[in-house]
């Protein structure tokens, strides 16, 4: 069983009285995500390390750091892009093999050769690939 599915199974069986945090990445190691699941709210942040094309949102005037790489949402909130230094580290994440769909903390993420798509409980989400990043 892939480590990604084992991680999800462990989290789903854990007590919801404390926050659980785990990570996963696409097989290319270009998209890495961190999930935090608590008793009342969960969050998901994903980073695309190497990307091309225009960012999904225009750069805010007050953003003086890297832009277009970091995506964040809660289990019921809209997607936000974060203005922060890009972490180029490609190590230590569980692998979400292509074709795997994970359901956890109010999110559904699907890893494919085309990219990674994640949605929350109310339908907000994003699609990330090297060539395209979109928010819905």
TrEMBL record:
Its domain of life?
A: Bacteria
One Pfam match: DUF6636
Signal peptide location in the record? 1-19
* Keywords recorded for this protein, A-Z: Signal
Q: Could you confirm whether the keyword Signal appears in this record? A: yes
Q: What is this protein called?
A: CVNH domain-containing protein
């Amino acid at each position: 069983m892939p480590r990604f599915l084992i991680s999800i199974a462990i989290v789903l069986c854990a007590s919801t009285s404390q926050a659980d945090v785990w990570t996963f990445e696409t097989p290319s190691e270009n998209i890495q995500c961190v999930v935090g699941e608590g008793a009342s709210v969960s969050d998901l942040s994903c980073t695309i390390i190497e990307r091309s094309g225009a960012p999904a949102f225009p750069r805010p005037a007050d953003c003086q750091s890297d832009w277009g790489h970091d995506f964040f949402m809660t289990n019921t909130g809209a997607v936000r892009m974060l203005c922060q230094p890009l972490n180029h580290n490609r190590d230590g994440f569980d692998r979400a093999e292509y074709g795997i769909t994970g359901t956890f903390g109010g999110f559904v993420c699907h890893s494919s050769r085309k990219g990674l798509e994640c949605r929350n409980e109310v339908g907000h989400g994003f699609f990330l690939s090297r060539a395209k990043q979109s928010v819905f």
